[in-house]
Design a protein that fits this description.
The complex is a heterodimer. Chain A is an alpha/beta fold. Chain A has a single domain, classed as HUPs (Rossmann fold, 3-Layer(aba) Sandwich). Chain A has 4 helices and 5 strands, in the order E-H-E-H-E-H-E-H-E. A 5-stranded parallel β-sheet of chain A has the order 3-2-1-4-5, with helices on both faces. The relative contact order of chain A is 0.22. By secondary structure, chain B is α/β, with parallel strands linked by helices. Chain B has 3 domains: about 100 residues, Immunoglobulin-like; about 60 residues, no CATH class; about 375 residues, no CATH class. Chain B contains 25 helices and 8 strands. The chains are: A alpha/beta, B alpha/beta. Chains A and B meet through helix 1 and helix 2 of A and helix 7, helix 10, helix 15, helix 19 and helix 24 of B.
C-alpha cells in the first residue's frame, strides 16, 4: 500500500484537486495524506507591529480546512489523514514527503488567479520536487 | 548628646568632602585642570566684555540649531568671536570690550543660504553704549544641496522597497537611514554639502515616546491574545446571528472596530481573520464577504483612540494629544462613519448574504466551537483587570501628567508581574523588528527635515491654502487619504507630522488641533482604499490567501475605494461640525 501526499490550502479552488487525489488514492488503494503548510512570511510586508502568535492561529485554521478535506474524502468512502507543518511551502513539502516516504505527491493545477503558481512555474517546481524527494509528482 | 552627634556628623561630612576633592584632583589630568583655570579666566574677561545675542529661524519659524555664527569687524578676516546656535535657535556672541564702528554677523549652516547681517548705526550705538545688544530674529533661507538629494532619494527608496516588497520593511528603513548617515559622514568630509547630520543628531529625531508606547502595548496585547477572547467574541457573533448574515457581519464589524480602538488594528485582524474564515465556511459563504468588511471597520474603528492605529500613536506623540483628545474629538465621527460603512457593506454584499447556506457537518461545527472558546479564563480575568486600569489611566493621563507611553509600560510590567511572570516568554512577543523599523524611519524622516524637504512641502501647502482653515482641512484630509492608498500610511504619516505642525502654528484657528485629526482621518480611512493602503489590509489578505481565497488589488479596490470615499466624507463632515 503506497502513500499519496496532497498539498492543499483549502478553499473552493482546491476542491477539484482534493477530489482528484481522493479518486487516485481509491483507484490505487493508497493511503491519502492532506498537507497544509503554515507560511506566515507575508507578514514581512507590513510596516505595523506583529505581536500575535500568527502561526498558531493559521495552524488552527489549517486544521479546520484539512478537516473539511477529510470529510470530503470520507463522503467518497476514503479515510484520509491530515498534517499541518510550519515553514516555507517548498521546504516543508519536501520534508513531509521524505518523512512519510510517499510515492506520489499531488499538486493542484492552476485554474485561475487563486493559484500559487502559473503552469510553467508549477512544472518546474514539480520537476525539482521529484529530483529531491524521489516521489512522483502529479499535477491534477 | 545631640550636639555631639551633630558635630560628629559634620566631621564625617567634611571627611567625605575632602576625600571627594582629592579623588577628583587625582583623576583629573593636569591639562584639564589648567583648562578649567583658563576657562575661569576667560569667563572673568567676558564678564567684563560685551555681548550680542539673537535667534535663528528657518522660513517656517522653526529654530535653526548648530549654525555657525561669527562676528567680524570691518577689514578683518578673522572673526572677533564665534559660536554655535542652540537647540532653540538662540546664540550669544561674547565680544571683547571696545568700541565697534562696523560689525558683521556671518551665519552659516549646511542646507541654508549663508547670511551676512550688517549691524546698523543705531544697533552699534546701543552695543557700544550698553555693552549688549539683542538682535531681531534672523530668518535663514533654505538651499538645495547634494545632501538634499541624498536624503530625499534615500526616503523614496525606502517607500519604493516597502511598496514593491523587495525588502523587509525594517531592512528597507535601515538601508535608507544607513545610506544617509554613510554619505553624510564619509562624503561630508570630501564635500561639506553632502553632510546631512551626524549620528547623534540622527538619534535626536527618534521619538522614544512612540517606541515605548508601542513596546508596552505589544506586551499587553501579547498577554491578552493568548486568552482566546477574540476567537470567543467572533464565535459569539456567529451564535447570536443565528444564520442572518447581515446581522453576523454587523456584529463582526462592531467587534473588530471596538477591538481595533482598544488594542490595535493589525493585531485585531490577525486574530479575527482565521476564525472569521472558519465561520464563513461554516455558514457557506465566501470568506471575503466577511473579511473585507471587517478590515474596513478595523481601519475606521482604530482612529477613535490614541492606541488604535500606529498613525494615531505617531500623531499623538508628536502633537502632544492624549487618549481623551482622540476619544472626544474623533469617536463620534468614527461611529457615524461606521454606521454608514455597515449600511454600504450590507448593500454591497446583499446577494451573497442572501444566497449563503450552511453546509458543514456537526463535527465541523464542534470544531468551530472549540476554536472559539476562552483558552485561559484565569489569565483573561487578570489581564482584563490590568487592561481596565490601563484604560482608566489613559483617560486620566492628562489630569495626572501620565504619558501614554508610561501607562503602557506600567501595564506591561503589571502583566509581567501578575499574569505572565516569564520575562523571556513575554519579551518574545515584542516585535523588535518593528521597533527598529520605527527608529530607522524616524531617522530617515529626520534627514528630510534636516535638508529642508519637509519645509518645502509645508511651504507649498501653506501657500496653497493661505489662511483658510477649511481649505487646509480639506487639503490635509484628501492628500492623506489619496497618498495613504498609494504608499504605506505609517511612513507617510511620519513625514506629514512636521508639515501639519507648521500648518497648525501658522493658520488662524488651527490651534484647535483640527488638522491633526484631519491627518488621522485621512491616513487611516484613506488606507481603506487600496490593498496596500494600510497594514491590516495586507495581513488580512495574507491570511485569506492561506485559506485559498486570494484578495486581488482590483477586488479590494472595488469595495475599498467607495468605502474609503464614504467614510472620509463622513469623517470630514464631523470635523467641520466639531470644530
Amino acid at each position: 500500500m503506497g502513500k499519496i501526499l496532497c498539498c492543499t490550502r483549502g478553499g473552493e479552488a482546491s476542491y477539484r484537486t482534493q477530489d482528484a487525489a481522493i479518486a487516485l488514492a481509491k483507484e490505487r488503494g493508497d493511503a491519502l495524506i492532506f498537507l497544509y503548510v503554515v507560511d506566515t512570511h507575508f507578514l514581512d510586508k507590513t510596516a505595523a507591529p506583529i505581536v500575535v502568535d500568527v502561526e498558531h492561529e493559521v495552524a488552527k485554521m489549517g486544521e479546520f480546512l484539512l478537516l473539511m478535506a477529510q470529510e470530503r474524502a470520507a463522503a467518497q468512502g476514503l479515510e484520509a489523514q491530515a498534517m499541518v507543518r510550519l515553514g516555507r511551502l517548498r521546504a516543508e513539502l519536501v520534508a513531509a514527503a521524505k518523512e512519510l516516504g510517499v510515492d506520489i505527491i499531488v499538486l493542484g493545477k492552476p485554474v485561475d488567479q487563486e493559484a500559487v503558481f502559473d503552469h510553467v512555474a508549477l512544472r518546474a517546481f514539480a520537476v525539482g520536487l521529484e529530483a529531491i524527494t524521489g516521489a512522483e509528482v502529479r499535477i491534477l | 548628646m545631640f550636639t555631639r552627634m551633630v558635630k560628629r556628623a559634620g566631621r564625617q561630612h567634611r571627611t567625605v568632602f575632602v576625600f571627594l576633592v582629592l579623588a577628583l584632583a587625582l583623576t583629573l589630568p593636569l591639562d584639564q585642570v589648567s583648562s578649567l583655570a583658563r576657562t575661569q579666566e576667560t569667563s572673568e574677561e567676558v564678564a567684563q566684555g560685551m555681548s550680542l545675542s539673537g535667534r535663528l529661524l528657518d522660513t517656517l519659524g522653526e529654530p535653526v540649531h548648530d549654525a555657525e555664527v561669527a562676528a567680524l569687524e570691518e577689514c578683518r578676516v578673522e572673526p572677533v568671536t564665534h559660536t554655535a546656535s542652540q537647540s532653540n535657535g538662540s546664540f550669544l556672541l561674547d565680544l571683547p570690550s571696545g568700541t565697534y564702528r562696523a560689525l558683521t554677523i556671518k551665519v552659516s549652516r549646511p542646507h541654508f543660504q549663508p547670511l551676512e547681517w550688517q549691524l546698523s548705526e543705531a544697533e552699534l550705538d546701543q552695543l557700544n553704549t550698553s555693552g549688549s545688544l539683542r538682535l531681531p530674529d534672523i530668518e535663514l533661507e533654505r538651499r538645495i544641496t547634494p545632501g538634499f538629494w541624498v536624503a530625499t532619494l534615500s526616503f523614496v527608496l525606502i517607500l519604493a522597497l516597502i511598496a514593491l516588497e523587495r525588502l523587509h520593511k525594517t531592512t528597507a528603513a535601515l538601508l535608507g537611514a544607513a545610506l544617509v548617515l554613510g554619505v553624510s559622514l564619509v562624503g561630508g568630509t570630501i564635500n561639506p554639502n553632502l553632510f546631512v547630520y551626524d549620528f547623534e543628531e540622527a538619534l535626536g529625531y527618534v521619538d522614544f515616546d512612540v517606541i515605548f508606547l508601542v513596546m508596552g502595548m505589544m506586551i499587553v496585547i501579547g498577554v491578552i491574545e493568548e486568552t482566546g477572547i477574540f476567537q470567543w467574541t467572533a464565535y459569539q457573533a456567529y451564535r447570536l446571528s443565528r444564520g442572518k448574515l447581515w446581522l453576523l457581519v454587523t456584529i463582526l464589524m462592531a467587534i473588530t472596530a471596538i477591538a481595533s480602538a482598544l488594542l490595535d488594528n493589525v493585531t485585531t485582524m490577525l486574530l479575527m481573520a482565521p476564525i472569521t474564515i472558519q465561520i464563513a465556511l461554516t455558514v457557506g459563504i465566501n470568506p471575503l464577504a466577511l473579511l473585507l468588511p471587517e478590515v474596513l471597520a478595523s481601519n475606521v474603528g482604530g482612529i477613535s483612540t490614541l492606541i488604535g492605529t500606529p498613525t494615531n500613536i505617531l500623531i499623538g506623540s508628536y502633537a502632544d494629544l492624549g487618549f481623551n483628545d482622540f476619544l472626544v474629538n474623533l469617536t463620534p465621527g468614527v461611529v457615524a462613519a461606521l454606521i454608514v460603512l455597515t449600511i454600504y457593506v450590507i448593500l454591497r454584499y446583499r446577494k451573497p448574504y442572501a444566497e449563503a447556506g450552511g453546509r458543514l457537518s456537526d463535527a465541523m461545527r464542534e470544531r468551530l466551537r472549540q476554536g472559539g472558546r476562552i483558552t485561559d479564563p484565569e489569565k483573561l480575568r487578570k489581564a482584563g483587570v490590568i487592561f481596565g486600569i490601563m484604560l482608566v489611566l489613559f483617560v486620566m493621563g492628562d489630569a495626572i501628567h501620565l504619558d501614554p507611553a508610561v501607562t503602557a509600560i506600567m501595564g506591561a510590567v503589571a502583566m509581567l508581574i501578575w499574569v505572565t511572570p516569564d520575562i523571556e516568554e513575554m519579551l518574545k512577543v515584542v516585535d523588535w523588528t518593528t521597533l527598529v523599523f520605527f527608529i530607522a524611519l524616524f531617522m530617515a524622516v529626520g534627514a528630510l527635515e534636516e535638508v529642508g524637504l519637509i519645509s518645502m512641502i509645508a511651504t507649498a501647502i501653506g501657500n496653497l491654502v493661505g489662511d483658510n482653515l477649511t481649505a487646509a482641512i480639506l487639503v490635509v484630509v484628501s492628500s492623506a487619504a489619496v497618498l495613504s492608498g498609494v504608499i504605506d500610511n505609517i511612513p507617510f504619516t511620519a513625514t506629514m507630522l512636521p508639515v501639519v505642525g507648521y500648518l497648525t502654528r501658522t493658520i488662524p484657528g488651527a490651534e484647535s488641533d483640527v488638522l491633526w485629526y484631519a491627518l488621522s482621518i485621512g491616513a487611516a480611512m484613506g488606507g481603506n482604499s487600496t490593498l496596500i493602503g494600510a497594514s491590516p489590509n495586507l495581513v488580512t489578505a495574507g491570511i485569506s490567501e492561506r485559506a485559498g481565497y486570494r484578495v486581488t488589488y482590483i477586488e479590494f479596490l472595488k469595495i475599498g475605494l467607495p468605502a474609503a470615499t464614504i467614510t472620509v466624507i463622513v469623517g470630514t463632515v464631523w470635523l467641520f461640525i466639531r470644530f
